Amino acid sequence: xxxxxxxxxxxxxxxxxxxxxxxxxxxxxxxxxxxxxxxxxxxxxxxxxxxxxxxxxxxxxxxxxxxxxxxxxxxxxxxxxxxxxxxxxxxxxxxxxxxxxxxxxxxxxxxxxxxxxxxxxxxxxxxxxxxxxxxxxxxxxxxxxxxxxxxxxxxxxxxxxxxxxxxxxxxxxxxx
Length: 176
What we know:
176 residues; alpha+beta; Aminopeptidase; 5 helices; globular; N-acetyltransferase GCN5; Acyl_CoA_acyltransferase; acyltransferase activity, transferring groups other than amino-acyl groups; acyltransferase
């Protein structure tokens, strides 16, 4: 198998929309009321919304591909695109890492994470910041393994359901 990372363009929006909806629902369906999930997916992952995010200066989206097939994606923010909840200065915000269910546990999340680290190094960022749902134990364990620590919390509203995310930060590792 050949794994590659490619930058997402406007031409990729239909694939990104489908992937974003599938991966988010797969991750959070069990803990979210159906009406709240549908409302969230229809707004947060609409073609117009994802196109607007893609076109935001300082935001980039990346696919991880397995043998040419998109299997997951990453969203990064820098500079003015970093959300207001990030308190660290000179930070790269890792806003999303999602992998399609059929491709989980094959190291693709680590591949995307390593790409985010590489981007932070290339952009001379000091900190990587992110938010993770307080009950997403596998993700929290993954980030803890990579030296992230909790620096706060914020509400993440899914439909009408205010859930809580942990805000986490880690120093950007120095290249070897």
